[in-house]
Amino acid sequence: MKKIKCKFNINGNHKDLLIYEEKPLIYVIRDDYNLKGTKLGCGLEQCGSCAVIIDGEKKLSCNILAKDCVSSKITTIEGLSSNDNLNKVQDSFKKYNAAQCGYCTSGIIISLSALFNKNPKPSKKDILKSLEGQLCRCGSHSAVFKAIQNIIKSN
Ligand code: FES
Ligand code: FES
What we know:
By secondary structure, the chain is α+β, with helices and mostly antiparallel strands. It has helices at about 25-30, 90-95, 105-120, 125-130, 140-155; strands at about 5-10, 15-20, 50-55, 55-60, 75. The protein starts with a strand and ends with a helix.
């Protein structure tokens, strides 16, 4: 397998890396940037735990080739807060304790952050659509919905 030089912009941090051509984006995030909040679950675009925001849109990083993201602005869960201030979604999840094991949580927060960045007052349909494919194997669903209602109320 061939290695190629690629330049990345993850959470505003620019890096030049020599990577295998077939390297999925999630390994650049977790291994080369040491950002462990993005979780590898199924690796098959079926669980949502690896979600990140690429150029404003939620994308699953497990099956995207890193080399295809060189000109993109990538945001991970770590990049949602600024100066240690959580964004509204993170803050509401904290307030409502909307996680159990937490494995799915960063993917869900990423999905909702991408949605609320575009639309502060989304409809129920928009919310459900944004959460399509985000699996939680624990029982955090009702707390997640309380956290979402709280964000909508405060917007
Ligand atoms: S790890 Fe990417 S969707 Fe499951
Ligand atoms: S909180 Fe455990 S998988 Fe969702």
